[in-house]
Fold each of these.
Amino acid sequence: MTQTMIQRVARPAIVLALAAACRTKGGAAPTRSDAPAAIAYPSHIAAGGVAPRGATLTNPYAGDTAAVTAGAALFTAMNCDGCHGGGATGWVGPSLADGRWRYGGAAGEIFSSIYYGRRQGMPAFGGIMPAAGIWKVVTYLQSLEPPNDVPTESWK
Ligand code: HEC
């Protein structure tokens, strides 16, 4: 083996070992949780063709109009509107009212976006909102009717 070949093989191994060490140091994930660990994404392509085990999340408040009102109040109280705008029509965060979803618009997918956050700027609210509150916000968001004229267009 040449010097560069050894480096090429050894470097990822060192990075992996360091990553593992950091994870152990950081401690275990918080145990306080009232949500299932993950949801099944049948539409996603899993590495190796094997989908990870996941649960199907169902909204306990589906179709509950009182939950829509409570969810709208929470949307303001938790400052979701500070990023997503009043009525969730979009501000620095994307519109949640235009019927288009980057991470999916099914109840469980919206729940996961809020509970776990999303990588391009969506904070995780799972640690500061109970699952019941998040479900009410999900119910509110799903009650919003997409406008006829959406201010942005998808790329063709
Ligand atoms: C600090 C700004 C910020 C706050 C506060 C915030 N969001 Fe977001 N949110 C974002 C950004 C930015 C994205 C886009 C993330 C991405 O594309 O990866 C996002 C994405 C989302 C998505 C996924 C949208 C999609 O297209 O799939 C949902 C659902 C969502 N936010 C709901 C909420 C709710 C509910 C709250 C309040 C509990 C909230 N957000 C608070 C910035 C914010």
Amino acid sequence: MITRWCLLWLAFPAWADEGVFDQYRDLMGDDNPAIFVIDEGEEFWYQSQGPSGATLEACDLGLGAGVTRGAYAQFPRYFADTDRVMDIETRLIHCMETLQGRDRTVTAAKPYSLRGDFGTELEALVTWLAAESEGVVIAPEQGHLKERAMYALGEEIFFYRAGPHDFSCATCHEQSDKRIRLQQLPNLTDHHDAADAYGSWPAYRMSQGLVRTMGWRLQDCFRQQRWPGLTFGSEVSIALQTYMAVNAAGGIMTAPGLKR
Ligand code: HEC
């Protein structure tokens, strides 16, 4: 399998069209290279780190301290201890700070890898946690006032047009069966498309040889939208994730996905 993975990586031309990607996807079958990242993420969870020399095992991801199975599928959600709606990435940074004593200016400095990197701790943790929700129903919490406000904000941003091209997310993601160049554009206002898209991240990007998270995906779409860079862990990022997660609610988590 590793050989196939290496061949895939080497043989992968930047200009390949979706049809070629589909063929590679078929060739890969169940062999998603993300499985290595899942293992790495699990190791990070149980690794003593920081001034406190603690693991992340006491981290409460919303279902109680240390409960990882199914937790990803309920993000973003409100946490009373921070009085904030958090996505899984900001929650992990919070746990690294409170449990391990690690400085968030360091842990959040480079959440996502650059091309050519081997992946970050955060990407690995998020990938493992998503895999801990594989087959689980997407069910973001919407009981708290702040959770509903986050959804409303996300919806507003999704349709907000700005930037040099006057694009909103909706410009590219409000219609079904559309493509840009050769890439399929999911209709994120439609439940089925939203569920397929939301539930399949984090995903292994074949063209980059890296696992990417939903937080990264949004930063990259901000770039495609020609908007100023999206700040990691910002309200805007969490609001957009809430909007998509709620539209996807009832769908099934299939991550880690395998993408172009
Ligand atoms: C200029 C068009 C454009 C705009 C505007 C845009 N995107 Fe995208 N988006 C894309 C393209 C193209 C892809 C597929 C990328 C690929 O395959 O490399 C994509 C992929 C995605 C995906 C992953 C879908 C999947 O099935 O895996 C999500 C989620 C997403 N965009 C969300 C957003 C959000 C939220 C916004 C607004 C902040 C936004 N996008 C703005 C073009 C755009």
Amino acid sequence: MKKPPIILAAAFSVVAGLVTLSILFLAPPAQVRDWSGVTGDAERGQYVSRLGGCVACHTLAEGAGPLLSGGAPIMTPFGSIAAPNITPDRAYGIGSWTRDDFAAALLNGAAPDGSSYYPVFPYPSYARMSTQDVADLWAYLQTIPPISTPSQEHDLTWPFSQRVLMRAWKTLFFTPVEFQPDPKHGAKWNRGAYIVSGPGHCGECHSPRGILGNSDAARALEGGMGPNGKKVPSITAQALAQAGWTRGDVAFALFLSITPDGDSLGGAMGEVIRDGARHLTPEDREAIEAYLLDLPGTDD
Ligand code: HEC
Ligand code: HEC
């Protein structure tokens, strides 16, 4: 007997509801690190904050606001979201946090109260960071001036305003695993791979996403969408070669924002360079280049 559509629709709703509930009640994935023998170094941590581009999001445009005391709202298709105050202020920043709280935020996208962060905070990439880099970053954040400024409120449209959805998102799409070097390549290439996929979070803009904001690992770096809905070019070795990038060009662009055609890199990439890449050591910019261009002969 053919079932009336209303019964089918009701059955479908019940199943969809049950699936949603079970995803919400599943514990989202989380990683545990071994902290034995790891001591943070604040000076190295300052460098890691440049590697991670924390300043670009968590500070109002350079000069306009105190360091890491909260950034301007970032526009997304779901509304705007502002990076909060992460200075050691006890009331408005993260001054009452422990190192473990900090590590859980960065490596698992989890807040101290157990809720889940929106992946605008690029923890899906930071999850690959080394334990040492996280410890250094934490040590550094203790040393910056505490600023008593409240973070700006998020302004997201319903249902995205419901943070609990991020729990389901993490359960479906988040794989928190520390970076593993590829033994087929040398130290330089692997350092580049670590920066690009981990702290440098290049794929957060340069990799395409599915409709639920999930990053497509199989098409990593093939071009995506940046903040404010701007198109972001592909930076695979093939795409860069086609666009005329050769050895030296990427490292140069990451320092001076100039492409091989003499164009300047602006917008979001301009910020990535100004607040992050420009402050790196030449060796790290060359490592990024060796990885992106997949250069032979640099696998030392
Ligand atoms: C692309 C922008 C962006 C970058 C880059 C970024 N963050 Fe954030 N961060 C955010 C946003 C947005 C939130 C708020 C997420 C939410 O409310 O779910 C956040 C939240 C946080 C929190 C939680 C604070 C709280 O009060 O709960 C910490 C800690 C943090 N970020 C640290 C860092 C560190 C350290 C770096 C650099 C390694 C960094 N962030 C880089 C955007 C960014
Ligand atoms: C916040 C988003 C964002 C992040 C993060 C980001 N990029 Fe970009 N990138 C862009 C945008 C947008 C452009 C295009 C800029 C333009 O044309 O002016 C771009 C352009 C580039 C280009 C030039 C490509 C071409 O063919 O012109 C390179 C190379 C590049 N990015 C490398 C990187 C690397 C390496 C990282 C990580 C360290 C990174 N990007 C992180 C947004 C981003």
